[in-house]
Structure prediction request, 155 residues.
Amino acid sequence: RCCFFSDIRADGMIDSSNTYLLGDGEVKVKYNEDGMDIAVAQARASFDAFLTKAKYPGESDSDFSVKVAIEDGQHSTYLLNDLKVDQEPFEGTIGNEPYFITKVKFGDRYRFTREDISDWTYVSDGVVQGSYTVRFSMKAMSKAESDALAKQFGW
Prediction:
């Protein structure tokens, strides 16, 4: 599996890179902030469908997680898994190590609202679903990096 995170600076602008961990390597990519805003909007627009799937998963559906914004002097986004999505505010477990904030740590439970969502993902039949921000960021990767990530995600 791959994990990813991005940061939003104190002035509200998205940091110019996402970091993807591919196997033993790390790939940093730059992206257009306007395009990332579109990817976040797509994730938010389809969040209700994600919620339905998370509440009523099929046999081959697993690894439900969301990417949410967390503020602590600066604004960062992190993956939450082990979701509780029966009612808002929702809850999940911080699924990656927070490098840029101190308010939470890996494994903490965190409550969030739909306004905090910047992406969502799950795996169905071995293929990653959602991941709009990842899909957008792949456009800025080299072909080899993009192909490796697509293979890892089953695309």
